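Lab channel / #folding
Pinned by the channel admin:
"Please post every new chain as: sequence first, then the structure tokens as a reply. Keep commentary short and put observations after the output so the thread stays searchable."

First post following the new format, from NK:
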Amino acid sequence: MTIAPVPEPLVLASASGVTAAISPFGARLIRIDAPDRTGRVERVLLGYDDPEANRRAALPDGGAYLGATCGRVANRIADAAFALDGVRHRLAANEGAHQRHGGPVGFDRANWTVREASPNHVTMRHHSPDGDQGFPGALDITSSFDLSDDGELSIVYTARTTRPTHVNLVSHGYFNLSGGSGTIADHLLRVDADSFLAIDADQLPQDVRPVRGTPFDFTAARRVGSLLESEDEQARLSRGGNHNFCLKGVGVRPVAWLEHPGSGRTLTLSTDQPGLQLYAAGWLEEVWRPHAALCLEAQAWPNACNRPDFPPTRLDPGERYRSEVRLRFGVAPEGMLG
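Reply from TO:
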């Protein structure tokens, strides 16, 4: 079988010094650079500059989904199946008996079609046929990336379906605001959530628990290292964190703040989604080293298609799926959170 070449990435630039490189392979963020408090510009997102390296890294198991757009349903679906209108749909499993990030050949493996491109904007599209990875309905998806002059990268996903289905798209970026040195242990994090989803050994969500009194309490800024170093059972199950935070509020609103005190770099994440998956990259040894970066994945709650008590991910014909995340990179000379 002939494999299509990976298209060259598109580079967006801003007056603030923030730049972002996006590959059509997986609608993937492959590089983000941002200045520190001295004006020094360094890489703050893990990824490969070589387009073919991104393809090789994605095989055979996703390559940690570095910067990729994951779908049709991001995160995990228990037993790789769900029932919809009385019909049980079997999905392609790729994490034991379960499905993760859309299956073995998810949206992260596709060469998306570039429809619009300018120095600060790119729009890509992808068609997922009926039955793709077991999902019902043909799905047409658009991903738009916009970089403002003040250093905010906006990512908007939209989709329409021909049959009832489930949709949950996410941008799976790995951030290290230090410029790549060290781990994310010294980063400060605050999350606007009073509860999180406890997980089992398969990383599947179980019950909603309050963050108060746990190492997952980031209602006030704390070192990420406090979670990585914790002996809490949930922290050990996830190698330092792989949990959904149940976000407060609705609409596009700021929900997470990350800061590297040494460089002064900050990241403010805003979204319209109900959940934020904090992944501390404990399984990153195949690519870099554990905890070399931190993922903040704005999305629906995992396994929602099997949990009627969770916010829904169902999409019907005639409806339009839309999700948005805004990543604002800045500098805090005296420390924003510390």
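NK: The mean pLDDT is 94.
TO: also worth noting, The CA atoms of residues 115 and 124 lie 6 Å apart.
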